[in-house]
Amino acid sequence: MKSLAELQAIKDKMKNKVVIREGGEEVRVVVGMATCGIAAGARPVLSALVEEVEALGLSGKVSVSQTGCIGICQYEPVVEVLEAGKDKVTYVKMTAEKAKRVADEHLKGGKVVAEYTLANVKA
Amino acid sequence: MKELSLNILDITENSVKAGASLTEILLCEENDKLTITIKDNGCGMDEETVQAAQQPFYTTRTTRSVGMGIPLFKMQAEQTGGSLSLASKSEKEFPDEHGTVISASFYKNHIDYTPLGDVVASITTLVQGHPDTDFVFSHKTEKGEVLLDTRQLREVLGDDVSLGSFEVIKWIEEYLKEQYSENH
Description:
The structure holds two protein chains of two kinds.
Chain A: H1 4-21, E1 27-32, H2 35-40, H3 42-55, E2 62-67, E3 79-83, E4 89-91, H4 96-108
Parallel strand pairs in A: 1-2
Antiparallel strand pairs in A: 1-3, 3-4
Helix pairs in contact in A: 3-4
Chain B: H1 4-17, E1 22-30, E2 33-40, H2 47-53, H3 69-78, E3 84-89, E4 99-107, H4 119-129, E5 134-141, E6 144-149, H5 150-157, H6 166-183
Parallel strand pairs in B: 1-5
Antiparallel strand pairs in B: 1-2, 2-4, 3-4, 5-6
Helix pairs in contact in B: 1-3, 1-4, 4-6
């Protein structure tokens, strides 16, 4: 049975982590979660990104957040990757499976998965 | 929308955008009727906006002029023989007690009923995206109630740990799933 006491244990564990995290998150991953994104399947894409970032040990470096309508609804679900000093990468028509590949190859490996980007996908 | 839980996620985003510090998501099932109520203490709307929000293509967004959230939800309720109501008190007129209540009823046995789907995923998504606002989630059936109040979690976690952190989100997911397996 899950209890609030367990949450206390999580808090104690996390306190140590907070200190390590102070290097700051260098990469921001943003998922469009307006009506258009949600209807197109953004929820499992977001969940997959959150899971993979944690599983790959990137949580100190990569933040995953949600935003509203990005303005290209016909391409939803849309995921943007923003990194200081680099061009924004816009992934379109995403799925949970594609998100896992982006996490592994781009967020971890540093190599853009070109075939999923806006420039290479038809509406 | 393929699942009503996705509409819940979508409609609740409006509450967060309205600056709500607390949003309540209340599901109640009686016989074949499901009522979904989303209640917030955000900035509210005046009467004109309440009417406009139920029309397709109304939006406060500036990127595009299409807003479908509430009309879609309304359509999904009405196509089962249910209905949607929207009531609001704007902060301007009611500075002490403002906010919006949206309530939709659905008949589950109707052929055009949209399944509820993965409501736990919607709740964890909401908390992940908005760790600084509070949510109450309640799902009542004849068998019992599934309940989450993020204010209780915040009390335990304090200011040091975000409700949006991975470990906490996972805890919420398990917490809700466990209650569902016991009560539903």
